[in-house]
Amino acid sequence: MANLKTAEKKTKAQSMGMHTEVLTGKTQQKFFNPDEAENFFYWGTHDVDFNKRTELDVKDLDCKQANEKIDILMSEGYGTIVIKNPQGKHSLGVGILNKLNLIFEGSLGYFGVGAIDGPIVTVKGRVGWSCAENMMAGKVVIEKNAGSCFGAAIRGGDLICKGSVGARTGIDQKGGSIIVGGDAGAFTGFMMQRGRIVILGDVGINLGDSMYDGTIYVGGKIGSFGSDAVESPITKSDIDWLTRKLKVAEIGSNVDLSKMTKVVAGKKLWNYDALEPTERKGAI
Amino acid sequence: MCGIAGLIHRGKSSNVGEELQNMLQALKHRGPDSTGYALYANNDGQNFILRFKVGENVGEGSTSVNEDESVYDERKKIVDKKLSELGAPIIKEEKLTPYSYRYEVQYGKDLMWFSQAIESIENVEILSIGKSLELIKDLGDATAVSERYGLNKVQGTHGIGHARMATESGVDIKSAHPFWGYPFADVSVVHNGQLTNYWNNRRALENKGMRFMSECDSELIAVFLAEKMRNGATLEEGMRESLTGLDGVFTYFVATKDSLGMAKDTMAAKPLVLYESDDLVAMGSEEIAIRSILPQEIDTYDPFDGEVKVWQT
Which residues in chain A touch residue B28, judged by CB atoms under 8 angstroms apart? Predict the structure, then answer.
């Protein structure tokens, strides 16, 4: 870390008087300097070549060692990495912030490919709880089933499971798309705030419970609607979007999209108004 | 947090002791305090296997009070005397640790009466009674407990196990899982989760004559199911009633002499991964437990909320 106390050259922000404090101790605060190229660099990313391919056997590695190996391979320019023998290990492939073609030949445990921003991931087996949690961008395809909290709090990208998923799919979702070829468990779309969820099969109880916003499409039976989740008519633009997304996902080509159930927030639980609590109670 | 694992071979036997040890060891990070096994072994079925303890493991990490080992010997003598009074001859006896024993006894009368008589001895607890059930639990991880009790050569058809992280009760054997389904022979239960109507249910069941040996909420499941079965319900019926009768979050396994079942609460708040084929069902809190015995690529899935399943040997 730079010695801020003895640094001679001030940043532009300091020169402009935006920061006047004298730093005398350790700090993690970094001042923004538009003149420095580092501000246009996404820390932790690598330039990779999709045509440069390699394999990594993680059978005898723990998750930290495996993730470090992936990072090293990316730093060497490998843009297609095939992971052999993941064998249900947790937290594999997390925190990848650049373009990458990542293929898992097997199944992942919990928290697989979380906090990613850009890679294209294929899992040829299943995934455990909280797959792709906090995903920002990219595409993740699970060939088999997924556990609970699939796509928890994702912000963007396409998250696809060709099999069935567990409970609380898309909990706290803030953007992006979650597409499921099979069934989904209870509390699907729980507290979701934005984005879309598509379930081609059946869903469990409390669908869309306490959702703020966003849209859920269901092809099969619905166990029950959650609090403040309501049905909405499906429109042509919905069908256009579904057609496009399902084509990307390579599933659901024989589904009659016009017969899907569209679920949105009733917005009666919203707190973004000037109502007093007693008045809000009356509105509900 | 706790980790649970179970497996059942259909139509054949296997080294279930070693298999369950591997599965539970893979889940060690979920529960380092104690480990328990309920193994359904290939016994001859002639006599009852009585596993009981006369004291606690007071080793490192235990919350139990230290006792002189001579006290254990005294209690064991009283157990032997009680068995004689009950007309239950001891065919074979093994001292496994200073505080735990495995007896083979002949007995053909009411097991509840039998159990009450044995447990009337201070600090004596029956861990299990059955013709095939071998219930072992102690402090330490799966490997340590297996080595202490020589479990990795046990041949059998099925078993369930538990790696415990003590949360609401002590680090001791009496709070460790599995729990025996008193007073039914060959019934055992392991649980991952928390039950929030424990005391209401416990008071009601105690008023009906059921017995609790610990203050661990998981014991309630074993007693709850045992009471349902005492009143004529099948195992599966009892398990389905537990989905509404028990409040809280839970995934639990229950095993009998020829079956293995799982139940998941209606919120699906506790994890479970399941593998099912024609000749084997294996399940655990995490997939790595299943992978420890099936390293090849397999299809697994998470059972849904409110799901109950039972498999036969």
Answer: none
